[in-house]
Amino acid sequence: RTRVVVQAENSAEAKFDNKRAPKPRTASASKPPRAAAAITPDKEAAALAFVKQYHPELHGLLQSLRDHQPEEFEKAIRDLSRTAERLRPYRENDVARYELEVRMWQAQSRVELLTAQVQMGDSPELRKDLRTAVEHKLALQREVYQAERQRLTDRLNRLDQQIERLDNQGDAMVERQVELLLRPLKTDARARRSSTTKNSKSN
What we know:
Elements: H1 2-13, H2 41-54, H3 56-68, H4 70-93, H5 95-120, H6 124-202
Helix pairs in contact: 1-3, 1-4, 1-5, 2-3, 2-4, 3-4, 4-5, 5-6
């Protein structure tokens, strides 16, 4: 995600510092790097819609990145697509957790955006904004931890109930399960007796 924000900010401001740019890795002669799968139009549209809804400022920077650095734009879209996919199960099964995770992503993206701005033009105001953003991100991280702790607590409570049920009703549960397992045998036995009776009458 840092790459998304930093590259977008650099493109928008046209102040990319080549000395800071990471050096490309040297590919192994025996194992050439695999080309990343191309982003489909549907995935690109979904990623942009996600950013437009939850991070309008970053959405504007991505538009500039697409015009000036299309390869970096594709990398950014790929990262954002993975983020949206990671959050999808929460959206479908736990709306409250989804909203919390989105807020956490927004806060992290805000920190990364401000960090890029400070690197390109430091000022007391930007540092103050960055500090506030970090404080907000950590507060949200605490909420995430609390939510996860509550989820685990609920899970442990359910396990305790199941253990208690086994302790209190174990014998009865054994009898019921054995009965269910033997029921097909009883049915087969009745069917055989019925067939034998019919054959005897016909003779």
